[in-house]
Amino acid sequence: MKKKSNRRQMLKKSLLAAGGLSLMSTTQAKSTPRQTQKLEGKVAFITGGARGIGSAIALRLAEFGAKVAICDITAQIDSVPYPLASQTDLAQTLSLINGLKIGGMAFQADVRDRAQMQAAVKRIVDLWGRLDILVCNAGIVTVGPLETMSENAWQDVIDVNLTGPAICMQAVIPQMRAQGEGRIINIASINGRKGSAGSASYNASKWGLIGLTKSIAMEVGNDNITVNAICPTGVNTDMLNNEYMRKAIIPQNPTEEALNEVIQNDHTLPVGLLSPSDIADSVAYLCSPEAKYISGIALDVTAGGSARNNA
Ligand SMILES: NC(=O)c1ccc[n+]([C@@H]2O[C@H](COP(=O)([O-])OP(=O)(O)OC[C@H]3O[C@@H](n4cnc5c(N)ncnc54)[C@H](O)[C@@H]3O)[C@@H](O)[C@H]2O)c1
Fold it and tell me: pTM for the full model?
């Protein structure tokens, strides 16, 4: 046990010195007896992977045979009024990935930090030799009218949700081009398809992310790299189902049941809040061989709510 933790400390120190970000631990790839190994031999990097949708995506891709690296800020951003993920969350997700015995890696790193993202990508490629899948999932939300929104509250949301994916894509595209293939999936939102009073910065960041996705799909398609966005409806995670958000959405009754009802009212299918694994299913599909000619789309996962949208 002590040996293990010494090794972890050494790894942590060496990477801090090398790239300014911290590595929690790694496992080497091992063969696995699983039947459904659609992503065998592939390497995936998921941002914001400590919990919620990111954690579910990480586990799903690992179940399909990919080696999976995750990163998460595991610290608070001052303008965000609900807790972001902890180091324990990151360690727990890493431990679940490692339990599948394919290969796992976790970094404490901030998607806004170009040097950290480049160091993470370098570390992944140095260790596993390639990088096939990037999922830009890290995100934050703050609510309130634009008129009274602080400069930080605006800027932090744009920086994490929009500039973060741009930085991550810049870090991985040279490697994907060298491989002659790659899959990039940006987790946008149904709020990237419509306006919402009270979440202007979030909606603007997610609209922007869809525009970024389509533009980069055009820039990298010639090297067989697909770039798509996923637009989920409400998902039961710590970002949405917390006291701050429930009070903002349903001040008269800020309970989980009421939140679920509000979300369900927007759906045509008989379901309220989706679960993170529902979004992971769509990510896995976009990473699969069957989705090789799908690029430049924004895929709604909205339990039918999109039926109300313009074509
Ligand atoms: N929950 C929903 O209803 C919902 C709906 C549509 C889209 N989304 C999107 O899905 C994604 C995942 O959200 P979630 O619901 O799982 O929320 P979450 O808060 O559980 O997960 C987001 C993760 O990102 C991490 N993170 C935040 N800032 C970061 C940064 N600068 N660098 C690295 N990591 C950072 C957080 O620590 C957290 O672990 C987000 O992009 C979110 O906007 C969520």
Answer: 0.92
139 burial (CB, 10 Å; 0-12 / 13-18 / 19+) is buried
Q: Do 104 and 68 touch, CB atoms closer than 8 A? A: yes
Task: Say if 111 falls within a structural domain.
Answer: yes
Q: pLDDT over 90 for what percent of the chain?
A: 87
**Does residue 32 surpass a pLDDT of 50?**
no
pLDDT at residue 26, rounded to an integer: 59
Q: Provide residues with CB under 6 Å of ligand 1.
A: 47-48, 50-54, 71-73, 84-85, 110-112, 137-140, 160, 164, 187, 189, 232, 234-235, 237-240
Cβ neighbours of residue 28 under 8 Å, at least 6 residues apart?
103
Tell me if 8 is assigned to some domain: no
Residue 214, domain member (yes or no) = yes
The CATH number that applies at residue 269 is 3.40.50.720
Residue closest via CA to ligand 1's atom 8 equals 189
The average pLDDT across 100-107 equals 97
Residue 1 covered by a domain: no
Which amino acid would we find at residue 15?
A: L
Number of domains in the chain: 1
Q: Which domain holds residue 102?
A: 20-27+35-304
Query: Is residue 202 among the annotated active site residues?
Result: yes
pLDDT band at 15 (very low <50, low <70, confident <90, very high): very low
